[in-house]
Every structure is written in structure tokens, then in C-alpha cells.
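Session log. Operator J.P. requested a structure for one protein chain; no other inputs attached. Running the standard single-chain path with C-alpha cell output.
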Amino acid sequence: MDSAQIETAAPLTLEIPITSQISSPITKDAIRTSLKASTMDAIFAAIFSLTTSGILLSNFLVELDASPVIFGMLGAIPMLMNLIQPLGAYISERTTSRFQYSLLIYGSSRLSWLILVIGILGVSLGKVSSQDLIILTLLIVLFSNLLGGLGSASWLSWLATLVPRRLRGRYFGVRNSASSLTNFICVPLAGLAVSHWPGGTQQGYGVVLLLGTFFGLISLGCQSFKADINPKLQNSQNSNLVKLSPNSENAACEIPVSIPVTQNHWVSNIWQNSNFLIFLLYFSLWMLSVNLSAPFFNLYILDNLKLDVSWATIYSSLQAGANLLMMILWGKLTDKIGSRPILIVIGILVALLPLLWLRIGTSSLDIWLWWPLLYIITGGTWAAVDLCNNNMLLGIAPLKNQSINFAIAAAIGGASGALGTTIGGFIAQFAQYNGLLILFTLSSLLRLAALIPLVFVQEPGR
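Structure written below.
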């Protein structure tokens, strides 16, 4: 159960042309190339992500006899590292290249997973114990997500700059669908490789992780084909408005970007935007309630129900397939009616999903019908939630120092999510099986409560 990883249409917006590293306007052709490169980036990054998180990493820790508290920490670390996003945004705004900053941050982050590959090899040779490997895994998760927190706001600001506002729903729908298709194909293949590897599941995971890291580096190479942005020039106060001519193929694109503001005023700018604050309240409560149970669904099916990892990956693939099919539909619907009504309606259904887990066991009917159906519903509904949360944030966050505003939202959501996973880990640890049932019920109730502030959020342009 992934909750997800976050466009601007303020009432009075200024349109400022974006300049590339050589200070020339971005052409329509450059925008097209950038969006294609970003989609390819998403595909290869999805392969890396599925090997370093989700069901495969959960199964690896189950094989190492990790406790529910470990799973809670595993879910809390990525959330908690979002707290460092404001610092990352502050640093990135003082660089001269979005691409170089991303390459440094994410290159180091992804290469760190090779240390875990070495650790798995050490276990096979009898040089490293299982408990040492659990600790090593958590340290790598901590380090990679720490670097990810430093780069996330800059990356999102880069992408928000390149995607024209009128195409955001459709583009992100297509981009996310490409990522979901990759998961649909690769997750079951990776699961089968792990479960049938001659040297055992741990060695199998090490091989899959090595390949995933390789594809993660390829995804960074795809970013080199995106139009680079100089944050200092982007925030320059002396840019002039350049309109996009519909008859000119190479005319500079009119793209909304952040407007510079002094450091002493960006906090007050946020506090003066009550709509953004209400959204942050919703987002923080939603992240807490979702992550209260999210890290423990895999633990539930792998440890409590004793399902084989190959079944779990097949179900995850069905979830990715449903996400793929529904993402484009949700993207078009979002452009037509807005994100808020979809979030409210689908959010209610997503809030009830943990309760369905309480009714499904390991009978043949459950394995062949109810589990696949549950994962399909999960994939279709979360496609809407992830896309609409992303678009709502991009539409509501103040334009001034945009990347810092994204970072603030991520930090607040991350802190709430980390609190949720930490509390969830202790609840699950105390009562084991019954603790998980209590956890799922509590998560459903809190998800419903989290939707209340969303009713009062005003979506710009709607």
C-alpha cells in the first residue's frame, strides 16, 4: 500500500520565461524532449524503486526475522527525512544547475545500495550476521532517503517548471502510467527471480538489487536530456514576460515559475495563505493516518498469513496494472472537474480499504478472487489520490520561492507520516496479529477524519 511521493495557479500569477543554463528561452521542442526524457526517467526509476522498497524489501526483512518495530522504522525513515527538504530547497536555490544538483544527490543515494549488495554477499560467506544485515539495511535506507530529502524539492520544482500548467493533469497521468506499467511487468518477474534463485531468496534479492541500482543510474542519465534550469536566473527579478506564439514552433514557452522573495518574508507569505495552511492540515492528517498502517500490510500477508513472496508480487503487479489503467483516466478527469472533488469521493473509499483486509484470509477463494480484487481496487483508487494530491499541492502552494513551499509541505507530511509509522510499529509489536487488526481499524477511522479539512480547501481556478 503506497501512499504516495507532491502546480501553481494563484489568483494573480505572473508569467516569467524560464532560461536554461545558457540563458536562452526554452523552446517548444526542448519542452517536448524534456517531457519525454522525464517519462523515461520515471520508467527506469520505477525499476530501481521496486527493488529498494515495497514488497521485495519487506520480504527480505521478513526472511531476516525483523520485528514489527523494524518495519515501523522502515516506514518512518523516508517520512522523517522529508524534514530536511527545506534545507535542500534552500541549498538548491543557490546552485546554477538543477541537473547537476540532482545528479550529485541522487547518484550518491542510489550508489549507496551497492553496500547492501556487499552485505548480502557477506552473509552468504558467513562474515555478516542477519541482525547486522538488518541494521545495515536501515542505515542505507536512512542515508539514501536523507539525500533524497535534500534533492526532492529541487527536482519537483524543475519538473513543475517544464510542464505547462494546462497539460499537468494529462502529463502526470501518462508519466505515472508509464511507471505503473513498469511495475506491472517487473514486480512479478523480480518476485519470481527472488523466490526461485538457486542460492536462496536473500541471494536472489541481492542480484535483483544490483540490477535495480544499475537501472537507477540509467534514470539519472535520462535527466541529462531535460532542459536544465539555473535557479538563480529563474528567481531573477529582471525577467520579462514572453508570450508563446501558437504559430511559432520555436517560440519561448510561457511557463509559471517561482517569483523571488527575501528570506525574511517567505515564512510570512505562507502564514498569510490560509488556503495553503488548510491543505497542509489535511495533508499532515492524511499522511499520519495512511502511514499508521501502510508499512504493515506486507508484513501481514508475508508473516501472519504466510503467503509466498511470488503471490505477493503478483498481487502487487495487479495493483500496478490497475494504477496504470486508471491514471490516464484520472488525469483527464482532473483537468475537467478538478482534484478536490475526486480526492473527497475516492478518499472515502481509500479510508475503508484497511477494513477489507480484516475480512480476507488464505482460502482458495481468497487467494484467487478476493486478494486480487482488493489489490486492483487499491491500485485504481490510489492512482487518483496520488495524482490529485500532487496537483492540489502544485496548484495551492504560493508561487514565491516555490521549491521551499514544496519542501515545507513535504516536511510536514513527512513528520506526520513518520509519527504514524512509529506509533503503528509499537501497536503491531505489542499484540502481534491482533495488534495489526487494531491498527487497520484505527487507520480507517483516522483517514475519514483527515478528509474533513479538505472540504474547506479552495482549489484555484475551480
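Operator note: The first helix runs from residue 28 to 52.
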